[in-house]
Amino acid sequence: MHIHRITELLRHSREQEMTDQDKTELDNWFHQLKGARPDLENWVAEAGSEELLAEELLTRFNQKRVKKHRSKKYLYYGIAASLILIFSVGLLVNKIDFNAKLPQAAVSVKNNSVPGKNRAILTLSNGTQIDLNGQSSGFVGEQSGARIYKTADGKLSYNQNVETNEKNLVYNTLTIPRGGQYQVELPDGTKVWLNSDTRLRYPTHFIGNERKVDLIGEAYFEVAHNKKMPFKVVTMNQEVTVLGTHFNVKGYGDDNGIATTLLEGSVNVQNRVSGTARKLVPGNQSTVLKNSNAIVVENVQLEQVMAWKNGYFIFENEDIRSIMKLIGRWYDVDVDYKLDQTSRFGGTFSKSADLNDLLKSFEAISNLKFIRQGRRVTVSN
């Protein structure tokens, strides 16, 4: 069972919203667990809550428990770790030595820090800025043949059905601050999901023989197909060209390069300095390094790349500085380091978790300490 589905089932159980089908599915999953009661109690104790839920699930498991040998340890570890996702307020840690006692977390808390949410500033062609957080749903404005709306679910949408004689491109810019994210549907129907600390500049209507936008930061695109007007994304020294496809571009100013990951269709990635180009197929990720003429292509785990859009952080034995760079953007905090040596770890964590809970989980699976003072986090070992 996919971890996201397990998460959903356990949440339904906690909120007493389970259907008969949900109960059957969760029962079947618990048959695979083969977990002993002490282990489950330790997981709950580490989380600090959900004892009643644990008792209910354990009772159901014991009533229908069957003996079935599992030869692959990693399956057991993955299932056991998924419990921690729910029992620690939505945090999943999937790399833990279950034979060792987990260390006690010691996070110095000055104030709570909630996770990011929908936040964006829309800058019109005349320089007018609109804070979309305070903007009610409905009509926002009109720009050169396009009506702009904020939908009821908090997205920005452009309707290009308005008649216009405009022959020159007029641009809007959508800026996502640290601790924010947003979605926009462009005038051609292309859908874009924007990550924290990201800026997208785009025309309010597309004319000519191409559709070109400029990106700094990270965004996922589902491009509306138009064979006559290729869609292009320009990010620093890279240009991606597509007709209609799904792909992710990550190119922050403080990154070493620009990563483009293809989920569906095909894209052409070009280094704007050297002119070098590579065509990607689904599952490929290209990297255009700064001050380099090369384009490196490799296969990647799409779930990890798209975790930010799906509400998770997924780390695979990553350096703590890389991890905290993402955490800093999402929770809008600055990070200092007092490290004698580097530290690496992995796991899957919910982006909806409170920062203090997240740091406690980091401490539980590493040799690190995290001290918070307002919007500043100090990492030490």
Description of the molecule:
The chain is globular. The chain starts with a helix and ends with a strand. It has a 19-stranded mixed β-sheet that branches. Strands 21-24-23 form a 3-stranded mixed β-sheet, covered by helices on one side. It has helices spanning 3-14, 20-33, 37-47, 51-63, 73-87, 302-305, 320-331, 355-364; strands spanning 117-118, 121-123, 129-131, 138-143, 146-150, 156-159, 171-176, 180-185, 191-194, 198-203, 211-222, 231-235, 238-242, 246-251, 257-264, 267-271, 277-280, 284-289, 295-299, 312-319, 334-338, 344-350, 369-373, 376-380. With 381 residues, the chain is α+β, with helices and mostly antiparallel strands. It contains 8 helices and 24 strands. The chain folds into 3 domains: 3-87, no CATH class; 117-304, Jelly Rolls (Sandwich); 309-380, Phage tail protein beta-alpha-beta fold, CATH 3.55.50. Helix 1 packs across helix 2 and helix 1 runs parallel beside helix 5 (73-87). Residues 312-379 form the Protein FecR C-terminal domain. This is FecR family protein. Keywords: Membrane, Transmembrane, Transmembrane helix. The chain crosses the membrane at residues 74-93. Residues 174-268 form the FecR protein domain.
